[in-house]
Design brief:
672 residues, alpha/beta, Rossmann fold, Arc Repressor Mutant, subunit A, 4 domains, 7-stranded parallel β-sheet, 6-stranded parallel β-sheet, 26 helices, 41% helix, disordered C terminus, binds zinc ion
Length: 672
């Protein structure tokens, strides 16, 4: 549970006072029964005035760790967050809970800003959100020193790290908070888990005495799956149709171009999707983000530019069409699924080109040798995760220095269906010999496509042009398929038994290659599936799979409760629209699910349901009960008119006929 040299987290309650009040606030304001994991210890520590560094996975529940102390301690909690575009939503969500929250950023006009400032000075705010650049302005510091501050929360604290891709220079100035307000506790929070980042945060934010809290990084409701990449868009569509029809989700691609093409492809095939990347106009980006938060079942196709701070609880899947650069990145991105605790999927398609591209990128990218070595190490860990035949969750947790489940997790692809392995020693030797021969006998280097053609004995134009059918290795690999050979090469690259070089990604030997060629070691490999597809998607042409549904399948209600659930969703959509807030700000799916399951008869009963706090009970109690019981008369099923008929067609046309051909070597035209 504990890391860092400065303290211990855990059971010791330094103050009896904070505990009871914190729990009461959790019940009253948020409507939750109990703290999760480290939340209680963190909150107690901060309520008592201590500094804290909090590491929790995305979706772990970081916000309560500063929101509750801000409510319990006298004064206003100042939250530093880099996410200007999300502040309005964050504040709206808090106000819906009855918390007095406000923000100051560049989107406010003069009068609006003056109002918030006046509220702060009058002690009428529990929480004030600020962008980091504000704290560089003397006027802001002056304003803050004229009010009473209960704590500083530094959200997304890894933005202070110069190694990460989220680095914000403005974060460096935050070290002054401790000097200027030595008596105000500071809590820094991040989902980035490497020790180097912790140390950097502690050092750069000047938090030497902060207690370090490291939560469990497990996200048990997320199912991790990595499938061999064949035709990624088609695989993605099959995955969505089979398992996530009508669900909200995020699809990550590496390049802007592939973001655009994937979004277009999904729309053509009946999945509503919007693109998001740094090349889009700011207003388009803001619009797409806002639609993702507000509409039900919208898919956003994005580069890594998207997602930090997005706290939409019902993201049911995160799909990767390209390999992330590191496990940290992968975990942060996949963690955006299933914050509401309901079943969700992290799905990735991964293939040979991913390895070649990423290795190439590292080599040709800027940065010194140390930078390259570090990037290489990150990639190696990511590749090891992709190629493992053991529990993926176990590997992830071990990566973050945590205890993996002893028996496997039972909720990842390798646990659900153990991959077969085979002795690839001879196959590896054939690949390496081909590379050696080209180089020694011809002084040539080629990429994977040519090597595979030579092994298979294919007389392609390029094979003939270079006389490669004259090589002694020509055709020695006819026993395996093309997909098998690509799998062998991919795994050799992943294990650094082979390397890529230069702008064309030609294959070359590594120091370790010799041990294979000299038969000093064996090369166990993962078997490639016969016909790689996302899942049993039925090539039968039945088209929609279980698709065409509009409700969230993850909610998994017994059939007779579905109409009531849908009625509540329709009621919620109306409320959300009226108030201009995302639906989850009213109630989460998980809360609606519990309401229909328990079917409370009175407002008081409704108040015992998780996620229904005091303010929401007062605002929505009657409305919820009316919507609920209008739909569930004591006798017989509900009337048939559908409260909300989403535009999902009953039977979307079969897409099988018009798959676009995937490009042979998709090139990242435009890296973010
Ligand atoms: P993070 O900021 O760590 O990514 P959040 O603070 O957004 O995570 O919390 C994730 C989700 O879990 C939110 O929907 C939040 O309401 C919910 N949550 C947090 N703590 C609790 C708790 N103690 N009980 C029930 N739900 C919780
Ligand atoms: Zn597992």
């Amino acid at each position: 549970m504990v890391t860092g040299g400065t303290g211990v987290s855990g059971e010791t309650a330094e103050t009896g006072a904070g505990g009871g009040e914190a729990l009461a606030t959790l019940h009253r304001v948020f409507g939750y029964d109990a703290f999760r994991g480290e939340q209680e210890a963190i909150i107690e520590h901060v309520v008592a005035g201590g500094d804290a560094l909090v590491l929790m996975p995305t979706g772990g529940g970081k916000s309560l760790c500063y929101q509750i102390p801000a409510l319990v301690r006298p004064g206003t909690g100042v939250v530093v967050s880099p996410l200007i575009a999300l502040m309005q939503d964050q504040v709206d969500a808090l106000r819906a809970l009855g918390v007095r929250a406000g923000f100051i950023n560049s989107t406010l006009d003069f009068d609006e800003r003056r109002t918030v400032e006046a509220e702060f000075l009058a002690g009428e705010l529990d929480l004030l959100y600020l962008a980091p650049e504000r704290l560089r302005v003397e006027a802001t510091l002056d304003l803050l020193s004229r009010g009473k501050i209960s704590l500083f929360a530094i959200d997304e604290a890894h933005c202070v790290s110069q190694w990460g891709h989220d680095f914000r220079p403005d974060y460096l100035a935050l070290s002054l908070l401790g000097e200027r307000w030595p008596d105000v506790p500071r809590i820094a929070l991040t989902a980035t888990a490497t020790r180097a980042t912790h140390e950097e945060i502690t050092h750069r934010l000047n938090l030497p005495d902060a207690r370090h809290f490291v939560a469990s990084f497990d996200r048990p409701n997320i199912q991790y799956r990595i499938v061999p990449k064949a035709d990624p868009r088609k695989q993605l569509l099959a995955f969505l149709r089979d398992e996530h029809a009508g669900d909200a989700g995020i699809v990550y691609c590496l390049s802007r171009n592939s973001v655009e093409r994937t979004a277009e492809f999904l729309n053509t095939n009946g999945v509503r999707a919007v693109p998001y990347h740094a090349g889009l106009d700011g207003s388009v980006r803001a619009d797409h983000q806002s639609r993702f938060l507000r509409e039900e079942g919208l898919v956003v196709v994005a580069t890594i530019a998207f997602g930090m701070g997005i706290d939409k609880p019902d993201v049911r899947f995160v799909a990767h069409l390209d390999l992330p650069k590191s496990i940290e990145g992968y975990y942060q991105e996949t963690g955006r699924a299933g914050r509401d605790g309901l079943p969700s999927t992290a799905w990735m398609a991964y293939g040979l080109n991913d390895v070649v591209q990423q290795r190439k990128l590292i080599q040709s990218g800027e940065g010194d040798e140390a930078f390259r070595r570090r990037a290489g190490a990150h990639l190696d860990s990511m590749l090891a995760l992709c190629e493992t035949v053991r529990c993926r969750r176990g590997q992830l947790l071990a990566y973050f220095g945590q205890e993996p489940p002893a028996e496997g997790c039972g909720n990842c692809d390798t646990c659900l269906s153990t991959p077969e392995t085979w002795d690839g020693t001879v196959a590896a030797q054939k690949v390496l010999s081909t590379v050696v021969r080209l180089q020694r006998e011809r002084g040539q280097k080629f990429g994977a496509v040519q090597i595979v053609d030579i092994l298979l004995g294919k007389r392609t134009a390029k094979v003939i042009q270079f006389d490669h059918d004259q090589l002694s290795v020509f055709g020695i690999g006819a026993d395996l398929t093309e997909a098998d050979w690509r799998g062998v090469i991919r795994q050799l690259l992943a294990q650094s038994l082979l390397a890529v070089e230069g702008e064309y990604g030609t294959l070359v030997l590594t120091e370790a290659s010799g041990t294979v060629l000299r038969r000093e070691r064996e090369v166990p490999l993962r078997k490639e599936p016969k016909r790689p597809t996302a899942s049993r998607s039925g090539s039968s042409g039945s088209g929609s799979g279980r698709g065409g549904k509009s409700k969230a399948p993850a909610v998994e209600l017994p059939a007779h409760l579905v109409p009531a659930f849908e009625a509540l969703r329709a009621w919620r959509a109306e409320q959300a629209k009226e108030q201009g807030v995302p639906a989850y700000v009213i109630f989460h799916d998980a809360t609606l699910r519990e309401i229909v399951t328990q079917s409370p008869a009175t407002v008081r009963d409704l108040g015992t349901i998780s996620g229904v706090g005091e303010k929401k009970l007062a605002t929505y109690g009657e409305g919820v009960l009316a919507a609920l019981h209008a739909r569930t008369p004591p006798s017989g099923p509900a009337p048939e008119e559908s409260p909300e008929s989403p535009e999902n067609p009953e039977s979307p046309q079969s897409p099988e006929s018009d798959w676009p051909e995937p490009p042979d070597e998709p090139g990242p035209e435009d890296w973010d």
